[in-house]
UniProtKB/TrEMBL annotation:
Record-linked InterPro entries: PRELI/MSF1_dom, Slowmo/Ups
Species of provenance: Austropuccinia psidii MF-1
Family matches, as Pfam families: PRELI
Protein name (database record): PRELI/MSF1 domain-containing protein
Signal peptide range in chain numbering: 1-20
Domain of life where this protein originates: Eukaryota
One cellular component (GO) term of this entry: mitochondrial intermembrane space
PRELI/MSF1 domain span: 10-191
Spans annotated as Disordered: 196-217
Keyword Signal tagged: yes
The keyword GTP-binding belongs to this UniProt entry's keyword annotation: no
Amino acid sequence: MTPWASFVMVMVFTAHHAFPFPFRDIAHGIWHKYPNDYSSHITSVDVVDQSFLPNGTIRTERLITIRQNAPRWIMKLVGSSEDQYVREVIFYKPAALSNQKPMILMSSINLTMSSFLVCREQIRYQPSCSNSTNFIQRAVIQAQGSLASGNSWGILGSKLETWSRDRFASNAANGRQGFYSVLNSLFGPRHSAPSSSSMLDTAHQGLTNPSDSIKFA
């Protein structure tokens, strides 16, 4: 049993969706996702490193530049610029490596403002059948330092967490819409993006273990 001391109060966002595209199309489309008309907050994506792990998994590290257009009160609070940077690592595990299904795992963490707020995101793509790919997304958002305390600064920290969660949820929905537009552009207009109400997104505040993650197995 995990002791309660290992749990912390955070904002959590999760999403589950089935893309009606085969896994090979998803794996190709990921590298062409940006730019798209739905994700204008992503201003640049740069590959920092790419390598093969000993087990044959392909590891790619990217630096993503984001412009969030944050409210003025947040900019005054953290004293940051409009441009923010995110470190993303992508692991692609081909089916040939084992008897299991192929899989793509993506993890990211913000580099900008990380002394005030940390957002850890994980995404997994895995084929569910020959023409469909399961998508699972999880983000944990937590204020840092004095903003995570229970005093008056903690109230601001909670407000910052809530805004960040809501903005993340909005960007995530737009990101899926954008990915659909890219996939249809690459492979033909076979599918239209579903409405956001048909997607299983949840956002809540609660206790979680920081070590919890989407399993890469």
